[in-house]
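Memo to structure team: turn this sequence into structure tokens by end of day. - J.P.
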Amino acid sequence: MTNTQEIYIGMFLRVKLWFTKHATALAAIPDAAAILPRLETYIQSIFGYAGEGSADETGITDKKAAAREKLSRQGILISAAGTAYALKNKLPELKSKLDYTDTDFTRCSGKTLIANITLLLKNVNPVKAELSPFGVATADVTALVTLLDDFVQLEEAPEAAIDNRSLQNQHLDTTITQVRTMLTEELDVYLKPQSIINPNLYAAYQAARLLDATGVRIAPDATVTVAANGLAVLYNKPYAADRIFYITNDGPEIIEVSLSETATAPGSKLLIIGKGDTRQRTTYNMATSGNYLVARNLGGNATQVRVWVEE
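Reply from structure team:
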């Protein structure tokens, strides 16, 4: 989803939580209370359009960028070690085949990168056991094969998903407009008398309706540094369906966030958050169970994640 869509969805989630917190008071305002089931249906529809996995517009692109960075870095390493080996052993033909510039991996199309790495592997495989004096083990060449396979899948497989995102965003924008209209033209009107009758209820509603990300004014509930290529627990508390998480990735790497049954493995539904991005989700949109909010770092540098929790 786009950042603008995320801001509105965050407001919808806060309004839903407001309904839950004030159910007793709202029982006396049946017209207002009747809007909750409609709001819940809209929210489910929104997350259905976005997809149950990455659930954000940039997720595929960000993950592909991270995979490309890893592949390029490993390719540069293998190329440099192979070139040094060929130079020392006076193998000029092999040297010319293994001597790539950094830009051969970093400043080319995805398909060209795949072709360059494939050719590099073909030429380096016969001598991979001889590269240890140059800082490369056989396992490093094997790792390059794995990284290439991962990147190929991201380069080729998600084309249909990328094509669908434009249509999904149109659906999202339409649904968001419908919810905004429902809140403005119905719920706001039904609740206006409460500004006099029950000012605390009305003030809480007005606060929920703010288009504002939690964390701008208050300290986070948790600030966690996730090690390079590591997994870390961001928050741990017994599952509650209506809990809202606001998750900011301060960078510099892309992360995958999920709700898990265990502190040592990610959950099945992954929310990809790019560098500098904030995402807002309720627990029931992330998983039907699980106490651990975990983040997996997809890059080679430690990255900081901040979490705000509302319930």
